[in-house]
Amino acid sequence: MDLALTTDQTAILDAVESLARPFVGPSVHDAGFALVSDKLDRALEEGGFLDVAFDPDLGAGSAALVVERLARLPYAVEAAASALVRPLFPDLPRPFCLVMEGRWRRPIRFLKAGATVLVVGQDSVSSFIATEDQVRAEDTLFGYPMGGLRVDPATIATPAQDVSPQDVTTRWRVAIAAEAAGLLAAALDSTTTHVTDRQQFGRPLATFQALRHRLAEAQVRANGVYWLAMKAAGTLDPGDAALAALHAQESARASVYDFHQFLGAMGMTLEHPLHLWTYRLKALIGELGGRGGQGLAAAEALWG
Q1: Rounded to 5 degrees, what angle do the CA atoms 151, 180, 218 make?
Q2: Among candidates 99, 125, 129, 100, which has minimal Cα distance to 112?
Q3: Disulfide-capable partner of 175 in 80, 121, 218, 289 (CB 3.0 to 4.6 Å)?
């Protein structure tokens, strides 16, 4: 499978980089556990960057590239579900919020009044537009704006017609993997910068072999997540998607621990931007049943 970027994809990523440039440097002291920007969100929507998968010549592969690149920003943007899942529901508005059937009591990323809530079960998909009285804000440590549902979606959601739950779940897994790839890349870059600048015992931390080995392993993991995500986006195969999400969640679990260890006490404060990526990774680790859910889905897809 050829995963080299096309001319169109290169142009799209260049445009994303240009638009996102003012948002690369976070206002850490104002961020708290999550950093969001309505201005960035509007710019992405108005520029059509979250609609690339609607173009059959660009497809999910190009959308995954956009999601991965946006995930590197310190700002949490509702891009993954909108770019990769929303093409199955072209008439529904964003932000898009995904929830597994029966697990609606958990905090839901980007949930607010006016959002589309997509409820995905084994045999059905349903949706509704959330209203003020149906949602509440949730204070969490997960690096995303979170909301909670006050009502069981089964009582208000409308079944989706002609949409397969497997198609939705496959795209959801691709979205998890693509976003995790960008988050891992950004967190690794932030950590590498710190250990290069930080002096201890008369030399930079990055010169110690034990750290270099673990950073190299993190780089291998991040690269693997990226390529598996891009392959899954290109094929939209359930097995590819499950393997990509599995590797993303497993890599996030291992790498986040190392990143915070390498920053020492600084990694446990809000005065360094690392948490803006790692705590979003912590949220992604548990989606769609976590590593166990992805492993079982991969086994079923590959071996029936």
Answers
A1: 140
A2: 129
A3: 80
Domains and CATH numbers, the chain: 7-86 (no CATH), 92-159 (no CATH), 165-303 (1.20.140.10)
Checking if the pLDDT of 202 tops 90, the result is: no
Beta-strand ranges (E) seen in the chain are: 96-100, 108-109, 116-120, 125-129, 135-138, 146-149, 158-159, 199-200, 203-204
CA distance 185 to 19: 19
* CA gap 134, 115 in Å, rounded: 11
Cβ–Cβ < 8 Å for 181, 226: yes
Taking only the tens place, the pLDDT of each residue in 60-117 is 999 999 999 999 999 999 999 999 999 999 999 999 999 999 999 999 999 999 999 9
Q: What is the Cα Rg of the chain in Å?
A: 19
